[in-house]
Automatic annotation (TrEMBL):
Source organism superkingdom: Bacteria
Xref: Pfam families: ApbA (PF02558), ApbA_C (PF08546)
UniProt entry keywords in alphabetical sequence: Membrane, NADP, Oxidoreductase, Pantothenate biosynthesis, Transmembrane, Transmembrane helix
Pathway annotation from the record: Cofactor biosynthesis; (R)-pantothenate biosynthesis; (R)-pantoate from 3-methyl-2-oxobutanoate: step 2/2
EC number: 1.1.1.169
Ranges where the Ketopantoate reductase N-terminal domain occurs: 14-158
Official protein name in the record: 2-dehydropantoate 2-reductase
Reaction it catalyzes: (R)-pantoate + NADP(+) = 2-dehydropantoate + NADPH + H(+)
């Protein structure tokens, strides 16, 4: 089937698979401009979303967006764009669905880490995009999300073609097209690998990694250990980036810390696991990263 084409400024039909914090955030914001359908994993949440829409709490203000919700995936093939907003460990179930869908509908994957790239090879979609999310969000209930911090969505073409004139966003919720998907994902994965496991183990907010001198020394040591694995990344620029994230989100808790607190499964395998696999391929020793990985996995087992 031919790939869909739209006018750049036209209203689109956008499907969002996953109705956690990121799915609700994107559904709420994109629903201001487009016709959005959410695909949650339970019928109960679908009923609630159809009745109440999505409420986005943004600082002292909030807004509500009415959306459609479909827990059966029956309307997936009628979308102009599908955004996959589930955690990486939930992707196998989603890709099973996508394998049976219209290959002409572009799909955008918004996962942390880089382990999901191998799954994308098996999909029939002609255009596949990958993205990184700079927003902070917390799901408060099945229809409400708190927008903890504003950023942007970086997207890049993994396969096929993407018309950069396609208007997805508002100024308050921007999308930026990047030229190199691998470098884009690696930068985000690296930052997450340095910040998230430490905050999870220390039970610390992001800003404490640079404010507390004892934490800061460990933070720098983990950074240097992982930076040695990726000579294509500029150490100076990446150090500015990871410390900048900590300062700009100083009062935020990382998603990994939130998962540990809830006793939920974390994305440690997708994030730090990728770094350990890279180290193993290079026969490099990364004792600090390895210790952090085992500690987070131990907290998962305890939960």
């Amino acid at each position: 089937m031919e790939q869909r084409k739209w006018k750049g400024a036209g209203k689109m039909k956008i499907g969002v698979i996953g109705a956690g914090a990121i799915g609700l955030l994107y559904g709420g914001w994109l629903g201001k401009l487009h016709e959005v359908t959410l695909f949650p994993n339970t019928k109960a949440q679908a009923v609630e979303l159809n009745e109440k829409g999505i409420t986005v709490k943004d600082g002292a203000s909030s807004f509500r967006t009415f959306v459609k919700a479909d827990d059966t995936f029956s309307s997936l093939s009628s979308q102009d764009l599908v955004i996959v907003a589930v955690k990486q460990y939930d992707l196998p179930a989603v890709t099973t669905v996508l394998k049976n869908e219209d290959g002409g509908v572009p799909v955008l994957f918004l996962q942390n880490g880089m382990g999901h790239l191998v799954l994308l090879e098996e999909l029939p979609q002609k255009t596949i995009l990958v993205g990184t999310v700079e927003h902070g969000a917390s799901r408060l209930d099945g229809t409400t999300v708190k927008h903890n911090g504003h950023g942007k969505t970086n997207i890049a073409v993994y396969r096929g073609k993407w018309d950069e004139s396609v208007h997805l966003h508002t100024d308050a919720f921007p999308f930026t097209v990047q030229p190199d998907y691998e470098l884009m994902l690696l930068r985000k994965c690296f930052a997450n690998a340095v910040i998230n496991p430490l905050t999870a183990v220390l039970k610390a907010k992001n800003g404490e990694l640079v404010k507390n001198p004892h934490y800061a020394r460990v933070f720098r040591a983990v950074f240097e250990e992982l930076a040695a694995l990726f000579p294509k990344l500029s150490r100076e620029k990446m150090w500015e980036e990871v410390t900048g994230i900590c300062k700009n989100t100083c009062e935020n808790e990382s998603s990994m810390l939130k998962d540990v607190k809830k006793g939920a499964r974390t994305e440690i395998d997708a994030i730090l696991g990728y770094m350990l696999e890279t180290a193993a391929r290079q026969n490099s020793q990364v004792p600090l990263a390895s210790a952090l990985y085992e500690m987070v996995k131990g907290m998962e087992d305890k939960g």
